[in-house]
Amino acid sequence: MRRRGRKAVKKTAGQEQQEKWEEERIPVRRYHPDYREGLREAQVREHREGGWTNISVEPPTQTTKEIIHENVFTYFNLIFAVLAVLLCLVGSFRNLTFLPVIIINTLIGIVQEIRAKNVLAKLNMLNAPQAHVVRSGRASWVDSEDLVLDDIVIFHAGNQICADAEVVFGEVRVNESLLTGEADEIVKKPGDHLMSGSFVVSGECRAKLEAVGPDSYISQLTLEAKSMQKKEQSEMIRSLDKLVKFVGIALIPIGIVLFVQSFFFNHEGFRSSIVFMVAAVIGMIPEGLYLLASVALAVSSMRLASKKVLLHDMKSIETLARVNVLCVDKTGTITENTMCVKKLIPTEHYEKETMPKLEKMVGDLVSAMSDDNITMKAMKECFREGTGAKLIRVIPFTSAVKYSAVVLEKGAYVAGAPEFVLREDYPKYEAEISKFTGCGYRVLVFGSYDAEPDGKPLTGKVLPLGYILLANPVRKEAPETFSYFKEQGVEVKVISGDNPLTVSEVAKEAGIQNAESYVDATSLRTEEEIFAAAARYTVFGRVTPAQKRQLVQALQQQGNTVAMTGDGVNDVLALKDADCSVAMASGSDAAVQASQVVLMDSNFACMPSVVLEGRRVVNNIQRSASLFLVKNIFSFLLALFSVAFMITYPLEPSQVSLISMFTIGVPAFFLALQPNKERIEGHFLTNVILKALPAGLTDVLAVGALVVFGRTFEVNGTDISTAATMLLAIVGFMILYRICQPMNWLRGIVWGGCIAGILACSIFLPELFAITGMSPKCIMLFVVFSIATEPVLRYLTMFVGWLGDRYAAFVNRYRRKKR
C-alpha cells in the first residue's frame, strides 16, 4: 500500500518507455536451439507475438503527428495568437493581415518536413541494418529489427553486434570502443558474451541472442542518453536559437512598455495603443526565419536522397559545407573497392623451379581464412589450391597486427604487411620491397616461422618465401573529384593502413595535391609527433585505427573542420570523432552506422555535389536571414527610440506586413532555392548581423528623423505612417538589390516583381494596408529623407564593414596566441 504524503519521484522518459514495453510484453518461454538449426518458424512467431523482438528504442525520424505539433504549437505562434485576439477585441480586423502569412508558413513547414520524412524513410529502408540469421537449418538475411530472442545469428568481420548475445560456435575478435572507450581487441570464444554496439574486427562465429530491443546494453545506454542529453545542433541552428530566444524574451517587456507609454503618457486611445504595440512586436519577431532554415534543410535532404545520399543527421549538411580538411582512405575512395593479385614473386630463400609448390603453400594459408576483406577475397580467387596439410590453428588478420597466420601439421605460415611480418629484419629487404611499392603495388610478405606450443605467431624470426603483389584500380572519376576539392581550398589527407610509398603513388595518380609528401605512421610514437605530422604531411601509411583517430583530433586542434570518409571497421573510431563522417554503403555495418552521411551507391564522385548542396543551403539561408534581421533590428531599435523620446510607434501591423511580404518573405523564398557555390567563411550569426545592421540602422535613422520632423512641422500621424512605410520599402529594396548580387535573370525578375507588387497593393488595396495620401509637407519630408537613405546606407555599410574586419583580425590574433 502506498504511504500518503510521500512525494512522487518524477520518472525519466527512458523509464516511462521501459515500463510501457514491459506492460505490452507477454512472459517469454526461452529456447536453446542448436547453432546449426536455429529457431523454428513457430518459435520465431511466438517470440514476435510476445513482443520479444529487436525493435529500435529510438525511432530514426519524427512521426507526422510530432511534425505537425512542433510546427503549430510554437512560442511565436502563441504570441501571434495573443496579438490577433487583442486586435479582434479592439475591432482592428484590417491589421490581421499577418495571420495568412503565418498560417501559410506553418503549412509549408509541415508539408516539406513530411515530404522529407517520407523520402528519407524510403532510403532508410534500403539502408536498414541486416543480420545473417539461422532459422530451421537455413541461413538468411533479415532486417536486424526482425530478429527475436534466442535467434542464432552469424557474425563476421565488419558486422556490428545488433543485440546482446552469447557465442555458441566459432571465435571472433571484437572492438568494444564505442561502449567502453577502449580500442583493444578482445577475443570471444564459445560461452563469452557479445555486447550490442560493439563490432567484429576479425573471425566468424554463431551466437544466440540473449537480450533484444529495449533489454540490450546499447538500448539501455540510448534511453539513458535520451533522458539526459539534448541533440547537438549545427552552428547555424544554434545561432538561430540564440536569436529567437533573445527576441522571445525581449518583446514582452518592450510591448508592455510601449502600450503603457502610448495609453497613459501620450494619451492615445486604447485601440490605437494596442494597434501600434502589436505593430512593434510583430516587427521584432523573425517569424519566417527559423521556418526557412528548417524547410531549406529538409529540401536539401530530399535533393541528396535523390542522389542516393542518406543523411543520418541534417546538421552534417552545414558541417560538410564548412569542411577545409578531408581525410580519405585509399581503398574504396581513391581506388575501386576491389583488388586483384598481380604477381607472386619468390625470394632468394625459395627455389624458382618449385614455384607451383609456393602457390600451394599460399593456398594453404588462404583456404583457412574467411573472405571478410577485399585482400583475402583477391587471394582466394588467385590461390585456389593447397597442399592438403592438416590445419591446427588459425590466427586471423586484424588491423592492429596487420597479418594473418596458420599453424599446419607440416609447418606455420604468415602473410601480411612487410614491416609487421619481418619486423627487425625489414631493413634487409626494404630496398627490394620499395621497388614494387614504387610501382604502386601493395606488397604482402609470405613466409614461414616456427610456431610456439601456445600457437602465438611471430615469436621467432620469419623466413620470407615470396612477395604477393596486389593492386586496386584508381577510380576513373577520382582525378576530377580531387581537382574540385583543390579548387575549393579543401586540403585532402590520405590515411591508409597500406605502405606509405604505395599510397603516395596511388594518390599521385588520382591527382591529389602534395601526394609526394608521405610518412610511415609506425615512426610516429608520441602525440606530439602525430600533431606535427598532421600539419606537415599529406599521405599517412601504416596507420593503426587508434592513430587515425589521433590524426583527426590533431587536425581539429589545429583549427580545421575535418571530414572523414571510410568504409571499414578500422575507420569507426576516426569517423566518430570527425566533425563530419562519410561512409560507403558497401562498407562494414559499423562504419555505416557510425557515420552522419552514407553514400548509398558507394561512389565518392558524388561528394562535390554533397558539398555544393551544403554551401547552397547555408549561403542562401545566410542571405535570407539578413533580410529578416533588417526588419527585426529596425523594429527593436525604433521601439527603444519611441520609449526614449516619448513618441508613439509610427507604424500599423498591416503596414509592417506589407513591407515584410515584398522585401523579405517572397524574395527570401526564391533566394533560398538559388544555386550558390561560394565557400562558407566566418560565423553564421556574425555574418548575418554585419549584413543586416547597416540597413536596420538606416531605417531607424530615416523613420526616427521623419517622425521627429513630422511632429515639428505638425504633419498628420496617418501621413507619417504612410511615408515611413514607403521609406522602409525604399531601404528594403536597396538592401535586397545588394543581396541579389551577382544579379541574374531570376533574381532580377524577383526584385522587379516585388517592387511592382508593393506598388500594386498600395494603389489598389490602400485601405487594407493603411496607405493614405500624403500632405505637401509630408511629401517634401519624404523626398528629402528618401534621397538621404542611399548615402547613409552606403557609409554605414562601409563603417560596419570596417568594424567587422577589425573584429575578425582581433579574433584571429587571439586564436593564434591561444595555439
Topology overview:
Blueprint: H1 13-24, H2 41-49, H3 64-72, H4 75-89, H5 98-126, E1 130-135, E2 138-143, E3 152-156, E4 164-175, H6 177-180, E5 185-188, E6 193-194, E7 199-211, H7 217-228, H8 235-265, H9 270-284, H10 289-306, E8 309-311, H11 315-322, E9 325-328, H12 330-334, E10 340-346, H13 355-367, H14 374-382, E11 391-395, E12 403-408, E13 411-416, H15 418-422, H16 426-437, E14 442-449, E15 463-471, H17 478-487, E16 491-495, H18 500-509, E17 518-520, H19 527-536, E18 539-541, H20 545-557, E19 562-566, H21 572-577, E20 580-584, H22 589-594, E21 597-599, H23 607-644, H24 653-671, H25 684-712, H26 717-739, H27 745-764, H28 776-818
GO molecular function: ATP binding; ATP hydrolysis activity
Keywords: Membrane, Translocase, Transmembrane, Transmembrane helix
GO cellular component, one term: membrane
